[in-house]
Amino acid sequence: MKSIKSRLTLVSMVVLVVFMVLTAIALERAVVKRALQAEEDGLQLMIYSLLAAIDRDAQGLGLVVSADRLFEPGLVTRNSGLYALLYDRDHREIWRSQSITVGFPAISQGEIGEWQFETTQHLATPYFRLGFALQWPDSNNKLRRYDVVVWRNAVDYFEQLNRFRQTLWSWLIVTTLLLLLVMYLVTRWSLRPLQKIGLEVKAIEDHRQVGFEQQYPTEIAPLTENLNILLKREQYQRQRYRNAMDDLAHSLKTPLAVMTGLGDQGLLGQSQIETLREQTERMNQIVSYQLQKATNVSEMSISKPVDLILIIEKLVSALEKVYREKGVRVERSLPSTMSLRMDEGDCLEIVGNLLDNAFKYGNSRVAVTALCDEMSRSLNLVIEDDGDGLTDSEIEKILNRGTRLDEASEGQGIGLAVVADIVKSYNIELNFGRGNLGGLQVNLKFQIS
Description:
The chain is of the alpha+beta class. It has three domains: 4-160; 240-302; 303-449, Heat Shock Protein 90 (2-Layer Sandwich). The protein has eight helices and 14 strands. The protein has helices at 4-52, 155-205, 221-264, 270-295, 308-322, 344-361, 392-398, 415-425; strands at 54-56, 63-65, 82-87, 93-96, 115-122, 125-137, 143-153, 305-307, 329-333, 339-341, 365-373, 378-385, 429-434, 440-447. It has a five-stranded antiparallel β-sheet with strand order 4-3-7-6-5. Strands 9-11-12-14-13 form a five-stranded mixed β-sheet. Strands 1-2 form a two-stranded antiparallel ribbon.
């Protein structure tokens, strides 16, 4: 039973069959109980009508039944299936209905006013029998005991009961089979998203698609969305490795050219040796940095939420120490806390690069604003400075790897390109423009769940 569908089908079948059988048994018992009660009530009414036809006999010592006051035709029709008898206190039969053609056994005496109803067999024929004990005064007002017994043929009752049982169980079987079919189809329909996930996984393995593209129910959607994030992160990490190696090769071009030029001169003076040493050291630093960046990747797991405000405060505190001589004043408009579901290292790299650029190229003021938009379920982070700003063409240039507008500052010209790569992997909107402080304004729009 490795199949979920088989398990659900089997469990549903067992539960449904047990439920339907128990329901049918309960229904059958309720119907039988109600039918027996109806038979007993009918026989009670018969006894009441029979008591209405009873009078004292001529001597006043016994009872007789007036035939002209018997309103039940079954009692005066031979073999009608309805029979009545009257017994005295000695269990002697003192009256019987005209419908009786065979003898009936007497019943045991019960308490006065007690009804004795039962189903019995007599001469291989089923009967309903109801007895009632009463007291009737004679001419001397002395109470004498009498027993009235009514018999009804139960053959028709049991035939109808058998037909009811056959109909009930037939419909039960048909209904159960139809419900099993419906439940099987519902199970298949309910498990179809899992089947679609399996097909999409196969397509991803065969490199026919790069992620999950179908729409899934709300219970499964978080799974596929997080898997898409993992797939994008994996693609991003691979691209990051390639970019790091490209950056390494690009960064080594200049030092290698210098070394090559020195080698072409044939002779190396003291200054050339010093230059060669510096360039070699620079190459070593570049290799170490790029390899560290290429290998320093986050684990492939679903990221836990990080506090963006706490990260901003840590970065601002560190940058204020680095650029203490500039005396940069930071204007904050931040809530107390704000959570993002992304890798903490990536968040540090994005915000750190942007804040570093604001501190580096701003004159004396940097503004950091964070707003949460509940309507669009998004978070906006705005970083701006009071520097000279950038034109559209310059913004396009700095997003390319290795392109730097300020050749006088240290760096490899890949900071904003790395930021662009990371925000792309998280589907974060990144926009540049002219800020209220007069310098560059960077707007990051994060989607929050």
